[in-house]
Amino acid sequence: MLRALAEVSPIPLLISRQSDGEILYCNEKTGALVGLPARELVGRRTLDFYDAAVERAAIFEELRESGRVRDRELLLKTASGEPVWVVCNIEPWHLGGEQLALVALTDVTRRKEVERRLQESEARFRGFVENASELVFALDLRALFTYVSPNATRLLGREPQLLLGQSCDALVHADDLPQLWRCAEQTQLSGVVQPSCEFRLQHQDGSTRWFCSTLAPSRNEQGQVVGLTGTAHDITQEKQAILELQAANQHLRDAQMQLLEREKMASLGMLLAGIAHEVRTPLGAVGSTQQTLAQALEKLTLELREAHPEVISDASVSRLLKVLGDSARVVGAGSTRVSEIVQRLRRFACSEESKLCAVDVNAIAEETLALVQHELRHEVAICKKFGPGVSLMGYPGRINQMLVNLLVNAAHAVRARGRGTITLETRALGDEIEIEVKDDGIGVAPEHLNQIFICGFTTKRHEEGSGLGLAICKTIVNEHHGSIQVCSQVGQGTTFTIRLPRCQPERLTVKPCPFG
Ligand SMILES: Nc1ncnc2c1ncn2[C@@H]1O[C@H](COP(=O)(O)OP(=O)(O)O)[C@@H](O)[C@H]1O
Ligand SMILES: [Mg+2]
Fold first, then answer.
1. 37 has a pLDDT exceeding 50
2. Which class would CATH give 132-234?
3. Predicted TM-score of the model (pTM)
4. How far does the centroid of ligand 2 lie from the alpha carbon of residue 446, in Å?
């Protein structure tokens, strides 16, 4: 009956002798497993069907130790040498003084093949992920990492294992979190991939890296979204390049505006030099005529006094002579003043872009004050505090222009409040000189303080400000290898402090003065 039971069993069964492995009985299923009729198998040794002979020893070891063998995976080979995977169960049996083994085998070759393919495909995908340049990650619905690709070590200096179970909040820059959450939420709600978003991640070394990431929903078997998977591409270098490009663009725009302003100043300089040249001749004529007139008048008075004292004592004659004398003096003083102004304009026009030379800063400051006199009007008082020995090697025309810009700004700020004072102070400090332009005007709003040196930044109406003044001052200070600082309080006033070194490296280009 037992034999009949074994024959109908769908499981390959056999009985072998433990000592030499001779097969004493097997059912047809066992024959099918190894590719031989059952009757041909009887009398053969089990060892013939092991893929590796050592396995038999291992099985008998287990049999001795545990008294049985349970669910042991084993690689056998068929009669023709094909590999067959089985799960093996053995029960020992004593019969007539002989140690037998009752063996049941389950063919798992198909399952093993599926497993092998699965492992292969998993290894392939792991290879893709692990060798990708992108960071690959998975998050659960609470935004905790459930997977982070090994390249996190290279990209972020972080061990992927240590990130598992951590919230991505800790890694993402606080400013970028809202946008990332919005993207994650939309991916979850819509169940489809959203446009990529950019955010910064914190590197272990404290620096930040820019990433561009795409999120996709991950689903369970029921199709519900249970988390997100994402790839993030490191775009730090691209971002850096864009920033540098923007800075270069801004620099170019600044340079272009300053160039325009310089061109304007240069044309103005030419114009001034031309006018000064034109005015000089008639002015010379007025000056010498006035001198001739004054000398003639003096002579006439002398002669009258000697030859015709009665005429000179005549009240109306002496009044006339006094009027003539006073007029000659007024004309003289006027023409001297105009000559001085013309001289100043010429100096201003011609010193633009001139070569490096010794500069008496106090003298330049005086000149500048005289030039901007009309801008100061009555509302603005000037306080001069010029220190001794304030001289340096520099470009006088440029320093002049810088002081004009600062004084005009100060005058605007003072007049915007009504009245006030501008203090212009110079002092020598060892290897440097310091110029301070201080006003008690309206002051600069704190949010504007870091913008006022930007080319084109102005808070004034179109016709009053171009926003170039301070940008040009900064350029001039840089040309002199110096520094400019601002300190301001709204409603109190503003102080600009410039420091310039006394010595400059010689500049090569020297532009000749127009109209000598
Ligand atoms: N002395 C000052 N007091 C108050 N604000 C000032 C002073 N100097 C400069 N500013 C501010 O800086 C801005 C830029 O100055 P500037 O570059 O000379 O351009 P602009 O005078 O043409 O506006 C001004 O519009 C003003 O808001
Ligand atoms: Mg200005």
1. yes
2. alpha beta
3. 0.50
4. 18
